[in-house]
Description:
alpha+beta, two-stranded antiparallel sheet, 5 helices, 24% strand
Amino acid sequence: LIQKILDVARLEANNVLIKREVVDIGSILSNVYKLMFPIAEENGIEILLEGGKKVEVSGDKDRLAELFMNLVDNAIKYNRKGGRVIISSDINNDFAVITISDTGIGIPEKDMDKIFDRFYRVDKSRGEVAGTGLGLSIAKSIVEAHRGTIEVKKGLGTGTEFKVILPVFNLKN
């Protein structure tokens, strides 16, 4: 918990060194898929990996893996038996677009603008799923450290979709 709090503080203060290298998002997502597949299967959730285009960004491979592990882990934790998690990537106007969508319990509309706040947990989830309320705050900080954005869509009872948008690699990055 302390390490997560320190990570958030460092990321928000731009005190974390983000290694800049060419990173293949497809490779990271493939690894995340392989690691999370047994967990999804154990929970009765189907997990799919879509997208085949080579998507490269300039960034820190370990931090990006942490970001996507966090989002996929949440998609599994807040899902239902028989549910589905879809991990996909694409390129749109010089931006990598990575989407993690699920068929889970969703997020109430009133909580959508708070879910990236430190320690914030949606009331409905507090008793059902263990957590610190730091995961999405860390995810957002990692995305912003990579000059990207993160969006959340859908709502209560219809699942959730997180979209991470990062600049694709070019010689100027």
